[in-house]
Predict the structure.
Amino acid sequence: MSNNSDSQSSLIPASEIKPATMELEAVRSKLADAKGPKYWRTLEELVDQQAFGDLLEREFPRHASEWIDPVSRRSFLKLAGASLALAGLTGCTKQPLEQILPYVRQPEELIPGRPIYYATAMPFNGHALPLLVETHEFRPTKVEGNPQHQASLGSTDLFAQASILNMYDPDRSIAVTYKGEPRPWGEFLGSIRGRVQYHKSNQGAGLRFLTGAVASPTLGSQMRAVLQLFPQAKWHRWEPIHRDSIRQGSKAAFGNYYDPIYKFAAADVVVSLDADFLSGSWFPGFLSYSRDFMSRRKDPKAGMNRLYVAESAPSTTGAKADHRIPALNAEIEKIARALAAKVGVGSAGGEQLSAEQQKWINAAAADLAKSKGRCLVVPGVFQSATVFALAQAMNAALGNVGQTVNYIDPVEIDPVEHTQSIRELADDLRSGKVQTLVVMGGNPVFDAPADVQFGDALEKFAANEQNQLIQLHIYRNDTTDFATWHVPEAHYLESWGDVRSYDGTVSIIQPMIAPLFDGRTAGEIIAIFIDQATTPGHDLVQAYWRSQHSGDDFEAWWRRALHDGFIGNTAFPARQVKANAAVPPAQTAHVAGQQGEFVEVIFRPDPTIFDGGFVNNAWLQETPKPLSRTTWDNVAFISPAMAARYGFLRLEQKTIEQSDRAKNVNADHQSDAENVIEINVGGRKVKAAMWPQPGQPDNAVTLFMGYGQKRTGRVGSGYGYDAYSIRPSGSQYAGFGAVQATNEHWSIAVQQGHFTMDDRAPVRSSNLEEFEKEPNFAREEPEPARDESLYPDFRDKGWYQQHAWAMAIDLNSCIGCQACTVACYAENNISVVGKEQVQRGREMLWLRIDSYYEGDPANPTMYFQPVPCMQCENAPCEPVCPVGATLHSTEGLNDMVYNRCVGTRYCSNNCPYKVRRFNFFLFADYETPIRKLGRNPDVTVRSRGVMEKCTYCVQRINAARITAEKEDRRVRDGEVKTACQQSCPTEAIYFGDMNDPNSKVAKWKKNQRNYSLLADVNTRPRTTYIASVKNPNPEFEKA
Amino acid sequence: MAPQVQDEIDVLPPKGVRPPILGPGQTLRTVTDRIGGVVLTKHTPVFWLLIVAVAVAITGILNTAIGYLLMKGTGIWGINIPVGWGFAIVNFVWWIGIGHAGTLISAILLLFKQSWRTSINRFAEAMTIFAVMQAGLFPLVHTGRPWLAAYWLFPYPNSMGVWPQFRSPLIWDVFAVSTYFTVSFLFWGIGLIPDFATLRDQAKTLTVRRIYGMLAMGWRGSARHWNRYETAYMLLAGLATPLVLSVHSVVSLDFAVSVVPGWHTTFFPPYFVAGAIFSGFAMVLILAIPFRYLYGMQDYITLRHLQNCAKVMLATGLIVAYSYLLEMFIGWYSNDKYELAMVHNRLFGPYSKYYYTLIFCNIITPQSLWFNKVRSSPALLFLVSCVVQCGMWLERFVIVVMSLQRDYLPTSWGMYWFTKWDVMTLLGTMGFFTLLFFLFIRFMPAISIFEIRALLPQAKVKE
Amino acid sequence: MTTAQPIYGMMAEFDNPTDLVHAAEAAYAAGYRKMDAYSPYPLEEAAEAIGSHHNRVPLVCLIGAMLGMIGGYALQYWVSAINYPINSGGKPFHSWPAFIPVTFECAILGASLATVFGMLALNGLPQPYHPVFNVPRFTQASTEKFFLCIESQDPRFSPAETRRFLEAQHPHEVSEVPY
């Protein structure tokens, strides 16, 4: 039945699609009728009933299945998904009942097969990622950035790209449950109404709400209403990746909560005190900041900016620094003080710092002094409040306020300090003050600070039969075990809402599709408490904005807001704040003493699964984590020197080459059996696989949070370690602890074994001075001339005349954020293969970002190089194919004909760039109906035994060509954007028609820094690279 | 059988005297009876039954391995990106190499009028055919979609209007290997016709006579027929000679045509051909030595034959050794960073131990063949041949895997680990090969009767 | 002795090749043409003696080789340059160097097939029945005996004459070959 309804969705024109309410009712009753947990409670149970048991048996030889496992893992998903199909599919083909507005044209005009774009926004970690969502027949298939929105400028990060997969996740929570038993929504409503009445009677005493950081004005106003109605009730907030230090810091500096807004475009000198503003969206404004910052690095001649980074955990931001200094988290504050003293804020407290650090400070200080008002000191969100205060004080002293930095009211509604908030709640739970706890989103049992012991608090709370925990979440997670009522939450692509981006601009969240599993939004749950239970989400949001909007043109105004994806002029105005001169006292107590055998333990969000919310997202799991290139697990960074001290490495590493070789016997291992270390923080212990990471400060171990959840889907289970379990509330981003070697091993799936360039210089780089002397440094070995070949050039035969598609990648701008990789997964239906297959070297990603290290492992220079298919004009892969399954198009594309491919893999062997990927098994999931919904209908789903690779998003090229032909014109420059190009926050990827002299790509190809990878093999790649130029301080050595 | 016979035959003759090609006291009749007897005898030797039983079992393993492969996909093997070719191609090249001695012995030695070839050419040809059958298996099953590769590789008109891509060495392979198989089969087949006639006339029961009668196609030894027969035989020999040299050259082009450092070298064709003959003769010895013991054929396969094979091995072995040196030299002489890295990887890379084992097997061990003692001791020769066989397999492993494993971009370097399925497939083909070979010994004359006759003194016409 | 019904010929059996050859030469000298010698292994002298010198197998072989070579190259050229030309890694449609291996293999294949089947055809094989097999001792022809058969088709053939002639060649035995 599922298949039929699926084919319906693709075959029947939208006009004929009837509203599916009927089916939905049917589904609900079905879910309700089915008695007992058996029917659906956990998918394991369900599937055990069915074929899965024997499926595992059939996996006969044990050791074979060790690494065939992911296949069974997928088959498992297939079965699981099939069971969910009936709950899912009926909803999918149905447009939400309320009118939502397409980005370019009205849905009534929907032409099957023609995508429609809607503007919306993704709430993330207390701010918004503004998006355009591509939908096919009302099924969202791809997420792009909203070009008109300051917080996106058209680009996205990897989380936004991958978020769409969460919506189509068969492991999502699919029904309302009471103590684990399925219940119809009505029943839930009834029971809660009772609860509400009771709390009205007692002023809301014992009524508690727990949410993440809320940036939704509507929800905010609802909460205020609730708190008015129930004066005794409390609203707690907890984000595991919170920004308390900024809150405290701004209190200390300005006496009130403010959010800083930086203007990197205006800064000639940027000093980052552990601020990874080029690394991820946990740094609010990441997308526009990296765009602004890199706008000053496109043309070295046009006033390059300079970046100083002092960081405690190697980050992609550090990789882009002109002067990077690794420092313990504790030292960062000292460095900040010393620097502050030099720029005239406070006085140096006689910090003892290493010579390098001192030199770094001097140079930075000098540079800052030179460019008053045109510089910027950025404190890290994971740093202490003191560092924040110092940094802002420096900015004030340097006259940057108003120039390169502004302060606005916090984007978070009624901001609180989350640590304090969650602790209060835990205490109240223990002392029995709480009777009703409403947890909306989040997973406090898993991610609350270890010493808060939230789980055990909840146990006490749940011990009392009268108490009720009401959970709203998209998954059934560790917290669900304590939930009396669990309500499936609607994915943001299924819900109405609003959210502020880092600068305060409001975006209306509009659903692309009716909730697949009948999920609810937080707003709809809160509405129950203010007697609006029947009001649909859309009306809640609209009602709020109607109240905010003055003037009678509301309808038009509303339409405009939906259409643009944001409400004009809602950005917060800059506050005229005065940083108080008094430098806050040394606050990080643990700095003093506590050295010796102690090492610093640094906690960071995982670069790909963030706080753990994405743990069941296969794309993000398989996306290599920047710098380490590991997948499917989190590792514990320690410095190579430290690893050697612990005897993990065979030799002390003086060079990157040695660190490569020392990593294990053979450096090309895709599967590293890493030694396991035990980290002990205040008596709490966790075992983690160590990872000798070049650039990691010595005596520090960096742990990544998010892995190790007990309750998760098949994708996320069984990998990594739980860093939260030892994360003390006292020092949530860095503390001190002990590290102990164990003789256990844990194998890690790595997608890159070598981090050295040897003598091959795949990445060409220089610095400004050198560059001015030797502008053509990137072209030492020029491409062989065309006439050197015996064969006639196809150009002479009239080929490549119409269009010649080409790509140029600016290595200077690439920040290695992996957004392009995930975008490629989403656009091209790329299969995920699982940890074991990655370990066998069978990852499928079409676009990989190679990382290279150079120099001293303690503080190396790092480079990123995105490597898609080079689309060589003399493609070595083509002549060796016996069946002509890969050949050249008249536009110079290296086409891959999937249905002709017999899979000899000769092409891959003969590809010098190794960008081809092979379906060693049936990696693609052909069964799970819900997965089919999310696929890009314009791209083939590849079968077993077929070679595949980057196509320059040929489906997009063809779409553009068709439009152009209809309008009888050439394809315009910028009309075709490849998925990677579109997602790139720094516009590092240029794609277009080389034949069009005015196209961006043609101009970049003429750039003197432009070079081809492995030019001497004479493959004539269409993809070329723009060599990177750094801008170190000429006086640095003197400093 | 008759070890005591062997004892008096295998005694070393006095210095300077070479052992005879034929044992003493042979007549037209004895030749017919001894060789034909093996086939026509009613009682099947026990050792034959044992060997065939084991071979059948191992062939079963092969079927399992291939069945599971078709079920799951090539992922059950150890291959990956960058090492897209593993055991399958290594085995392919290895078996094809083995398949070279047969045609070489029958064709080239025939042209050179090397009369000693006659006692070994028949089963050497059989060996060739069976080896090529093993080899042919791999290029097919190693593809991702064998059910398509099976016919898409051949040029046939189809509704899609697409054809094979003739610039690809893999297509050259298809043509070379299938041609080689056909020609070897023809060569072997017409060689058998007169002997089938003999068996027909010697047959004791009607059915046997009928069967061999059909196979003999009514051959009656007419002088006119012999005349054309001899011409055809010579012509085939003349055709097979360039063919046998071309086949392994084409196989070597699979590598030489590519851009992979360690593959992209012009001297691969001669290098591969020498290696092929090297391993081929090793295989001849591996088969001949047990065969002459088990069936007491020392009169026909004498020490002389073993010694000559050993000499050919020594010579080709030296060429192979030279090729190894040349490989290193060119790597160094090219002064190309990728070639240099390839050399470095051979010597110090993660797989270097395989390389050194290979040197031991293919360069050090064969040197023992300089000594007449070794050349005249079947046991030692058997041992050396086995070592060489391993060496030749390793050579292909080194070429295929160690080159792919580290090519241009360090970031995409990778390792290759074979799985049990790889091993089962390799083992399985050995079993299948043995099975075919022993069936051949039982049902067809393993030594060319009519050619042996021609060697007898009384076969000459006295003036 | 002499029988009414026609016979295929008169056959003499010899113990060694020398006698056979001599007998054959004598017969040829005596003007016999339609005759054939039978031996268990190729005996060039015998063929010479009965006057069979050259044969057309080499010609057939040459034709086969030509057909194979031309066919092979033509196929590749037509496929890659005319019927469905594709731009494969910037190589010309008619990349003749790449076509040589297949051409060569085709030539060898054509030649070999032509040779073998040509030889069989010229020999008139397979041939299920032949009168010579009616002679009981002829089974020895594939082992150790040598036979000379003068056929009745020969103008000079006369049962009595021929038998006398053959017996003069001191054979092991002379016998009639019935149809």
About this structure: Residues 1-8 of chain B have pLDDT under 50 and may be disordered. Chain B touches chain C through 64 residues (CB under 8 Å). The CA atoms of residues 102 and 124 of chain B lie 4 Å apart.
